[in-house]
Amino acid sequence: MRFVNPKPVFNQVLCSIGLSLAMLWFYQGLIPKILFQSPAEITIWQNMGFELAFAKTLVGFSGGCEMLWGVCFLKWNRSILLHGLNIMGLAGLLLLIVLTAPLQLTAAFNPVVMNIAMLMLSVVAIQLIWQEQA
């Protein structure tokens, strides 16, 4: 009986997950926060008590942070800590939307879809890393 070494498969899948998360975070930071400043993003900050001008600044800043976070997945895609923080952060961001802008949860392509999909990519990555280390 011939056994196949799963390591190359793990490597490919982990690289795909890291690249996917990097691209998604980069897009989420650049398009709706920096280039086009989505009104929904601005509203979230305003609902937390910030004036319009400062809310726009915070949207841009958060976009930059998201882009940097995406870069982390290119560099450290095998980090259980990074994926764990991603899971907690995405769950926290989803809770923030529930509390500050619950109507966004009823729109097409809403945060529930994106956050859970990205969160699950990190769950799968952690499972693969653990399996690889076993």
TrEMBL record:
<feature type="transmembrane region" description="Helical">
    <location>
        <begin position="53"/>
        <end position="74"/>
    </location>
</feature>
<feature type="transmembrane region" description="Helical">
    <location>
        <begin position="107"/>
        <end position="130"/>
    </location>
</feature>
<dbReference type="InterPro" id="IPR025695">
    <property type="entry name" value="DoxX-like"/>
</dbReference>
<feature type="transmembrane region" description="Helical">
    <location>
        <begin position="81"/>
        <end position="101"/>
    </location>
</feature>
<keyword id="KW-0812">Transmembrane</keyword>
<protein>
    <submittedName>
        <fullName>DoxX-like family protein</fullName>
    </submittedName>
</protein>
<keyword id="KW-1133">Transmembrane helix</keyword>
<dbReference type="Pfam" id="PF13781">
    <property type="entry name" value="DoxX_3"/>
</dbReference>
<feature type="transmembrane region" description="Helical">
    <location>
        <begin position="9"/>
        <end position="27"/>
    </location>
</feature>
<keyword id="KW-0472">Membrane</keyword>
